[in-house]
Amino acid sequence: MKRANAISGIFLCVFSIVMLGMVIPTQINAGPSGMMSPRLVPNMMMIGILLLSLPLVIRGLRKTPEYDAQDTASPISRAEMLALLRISGVFAASIALYELFGALVGASSLVILALLVLGERRPLVIVALTVVLLTGLWALFYKVLGTAIL
């Protein structure tokens, strides 16, 4: 586990440094003067990732005198991998339905299938949550903000 933490921490450090030094400055314009820069939020996120990955690297590379039995065991169980595959399948199916039939079918399928995969079995809760979420988003964008979703 410590080795995996060190490797993932190093990867995240390198990733955030590359994003801060090369990708964000070349791909995001500075913006007009007198306005908050569009680079601000991406830079803040990359700095956050960099600062949070440093302790991961330090803890992963630090030597401990005792043998840790967790280092040999896989940190991810089979059940967790299957859950990841299921929810990834839900997102893939929802994206495909969105492309084929539009936003309403794609969004409805995302909410309904995600609830089913996560274990919700009460039909009233599934239907009510789907209707409330989609109606709420429609009201927010079209009525409150006055813009189209797409």
Describe the structure.
The protein is mostly helical. The chain folds into two domains: 2-72; 83-144. It has five helices and no strands. The protein has helices at 2-27, 40-61, 78-101, 103-117, 123-144. α1 (2-27) packs antiparallel against α2 and α3 (78-101) runs antiparallel to α4. It starts with a helix and ends in a 6-residue tail after the last helix. The mean pLDDT is 89. InterPro entries: DUF1468. This is Tripartite tricarboxylate transporter TctB family protein. Pfam families: TctB (PF07331). The chain crosses the membrane at residues 40-58, 90-118, 124-145. Residues 7-146 form the DUF1468 domain.
Number of domains: 2
Backbone structural class: mainly alpha
How many β strands by DSSP?
A: 0
Principal-axis shape equals: flat
Oligomer: single chain
Average pLDDT score? 89
**Helix tally?**
5
Alpha-carbon Rg, integer = 22 Å
Can you lay out the helices and strands and say which pair or pack?
Blueprint: H1 2-27, H2 40-61, H3 78-101, H4 103-117, H5 123-144
